[in-house]
């Protein structure tokens, strides 16, 4: 479990500076962002939401008990930032 990737780790590693950062390997399922700017991360990049309104009004996100993104996940959302996979201290995003 020590090698588990978190949104907080990627937020720091990729210098996104989000107030709240969440990670899902495939980029298709997340808990709700609670602080903004907020970022959703997957293995290859992230999407940054500057405000709660920007996040809640994004047509790619499906809000229910959790947040779901159909199809290719967050990588299909306009504004997605693709990054090089992180390999650091035994943590791999691939």
Molecular structure report:
The chain is an alpha+beta fold and 94 residues long. The protein has one domain (7-92). The protein has two helices and nine strands. It has helices at residues 7-13, 52-56; strands at residues 20-23, 29-30, 38-42, 45-49, 62-63, 67-68, 81-82, 87-88, 91-92. It has a four-stranded mixed β-sheet with strand order 1-3-4-7.
Question: What's the short story on this structure?
Answer:
The chain is an alpha+beta fold and 94 residues long.
Could you give the topology of this structure?
Elements: H1 7-13, E1 20-23, E2 29-30, E3 38-42, E4 45-49, H2 52-56, E5 62-63, E6 67-68, E7 81-82, E8 87-88, E9 91-92
Parallel strand pairs: 1-3
Antiparallel strand pairs: 2-6, 3-4, 4-7, 5-6, 8-9
Question: What's the structural domain tally?
Answer: 1
Task: Report the average pLDDT across residues.
Answer: 90
Helix content: 10-25%
Please count the beta strands (DSSP E, at least 2 residues each): 9
Biggest sheet architecture:
4 strands, mixed
Which segments are poorly predicted (pLDDT under 50) over 5 or more consecutive residues? Answer: none
End-to-end distance, in Å? 16 Å
What descriptors fit this protein?
globular, alpha+beta, 2 helices, three-stranded antiparallel β-sheet, 94 residues, single chain
